[in-house]
Amino acid sequence: MAIIDISVRDLYKILEFTPARHNIMLIGKHGIGKSQIITGYYEAKGMKVTTLFLGQMSDPGDLIGLPRKDEKCDRTVFMPPYWFPTDSTPIVLFLDELNRARPEILQTVMDLVLNRKLAGKCLPEGSRIISAINDGEEYQLTDLDPALVSRFNIYQFKPTAGEWLMWASKHGIDQHVIDFINMNPDLLDGDGRDPEEISPLAPRPDRRSWERVSDIIKQVDSITTSAKKAVAGIIGIPTANLLFESISASGKITAEMVLSDFNKHLQGLDRMMPHHITALNEEIYRCLELGKQGDIKTSSDNLLKYLKWLTDNGKRECMAHFCSIFEGASYAKANLFIMTKAPACLQHINNFIKNL
User: Fold this and answer.
1) A Pfam family this protein belongs to (predicted)?
2) 122 neighbors 116 (Cβ within 8 angstroms)
């Protein structure tokens, strides 16, 4: 049965209007930021996020707490576990690795997701339950009971490469890594090798590994053999070779360079291939989205020169790509900049679209 795909942007919207009593399940590969995004979203709203790694629990007592005798009523009760709320403040309970949990752990989860209760104790009103699971033959997983699955709103979480690049630009990921993924988005989450044909221990790229590659590159003054080996141990030899070939051929024209002085870099732009220009289009939108464009009048004037260059120099497909990004509204702040700070650019875009 098909499962709806959602991006980070979609997820934020879904979290906004989904009632707290609904449970949410995110399906996706490891390393794509499920827990990080959920934690960041709710902590920004002032809610505590408690993450339970169910795959690491060996006994229901790890989840519900340990039994003890209540001297007042001469009955066995369960002491609340360390994570259980001690007041009425609602929390976000993030059940990670749900389909790695032992069957006896999953039985305990059933009451939790249905009744918001654990060993007779209720979660505070307004608390949310969100789970994350991996899906694929490469994982060692536990089959989930359909009765448990039916208690969740289920989404296949697929963050786009563009969303990762925006995150990377905000969080100080090395520019060489950003440039490489900008040109090779298919290498963000894998390298195309068949998992059955390579060792299960062979490293392959994912979003976590690119962050670690950035950490390595930032620490070295030059790309030595040792540095290359260190990176190959993170993303694998084939991808590492492509990355270092890209770094060796660097000297590319950046969005900041275009927006600060288009005329100065015109000759370099004329030598660029179409796929490099479309990557530059995306970079310009990210630059505007993050407010890195510098002086507003200078950047708006240079952006108009760039758009006219695309239109009048046999690069109309690249101009159409720039317009498609605008129409897709993936970069809200960048679009706002164009509409309010660069009206001549907006007019040029509208005229181009009308004449298609």
Assistant:
1) AAA_5
2) yes
Q: Side-chain half-sphere of 11: how many Cα atoms within 13 Å?
A: 28
CB atoms within 10 A of CB 317: 11
- The DSSP bridge pattern shows strands 91-96 and 128-133 to be parallel
Does residue 285 contact residue 334 with C-beta atoms inside 8 Å? yes
Closest CA to 113 of 150, 82, 60, 67: 150
**Amino acid, res. 356:** L
Q: Residue 182, Cα to own-chain centre: how many angstroms?
A: 14
End-to-end CA gap in the chain: 39
Q: What is the DSSP letter of 236?
A: -
* Cα separation values, 283 from 172, 183, 216, 304, Å: 15, 10, 23, 16
Q: Which two tokens stand for residue 354?
A: 């009308």
pLDDT at 139: 47
Q: What is the pLDDT of residue 291?
A: 92
Instruction: Give phi and psi for 53, each to the nearest 5.
Output: -90, 90
Tokens of 130: 């969100």
Which two tokens mark 317?
A: 């497909």
Q: What are phi and psi of 142, to 5 degrees?
A: -100, 135
Residue type, 137: E
CB-based contacts of 40, cutoff 8 Å, min separation 6: none
10 closest CA partner among 164, 189, 182, 160 = 160
Asked whether the beta carbons of 194 and 64 are under 8 A apart, the reply is no
Tell me how far apart the alpha carbons of residues 131 and 24 are, in angstroms, rounded to a whole number: 6
Can you tell me the distance from the alpha carbon of 35 to that of 96, in angstroms, rounded to the nearest whole number?
8
Low-confidence ranges of the chain (pLDDT < 50): 139
Dist CA 58 CA 67 (whole Å): 16
SS3 content of the chain, % helix, strand, coil (to 5): 55, 10, 35
What was the pLDDT predicted at 296? 94
For the beta carbon of residue 91, count every other beta carbon within 10 angstroms. 19
Which residues make beta-bridge pairs with 14? Answer: none
Number of H-type helices and E-type strands within the chain: 17, 10
316, 355 in Cβ contact below 8 A? no
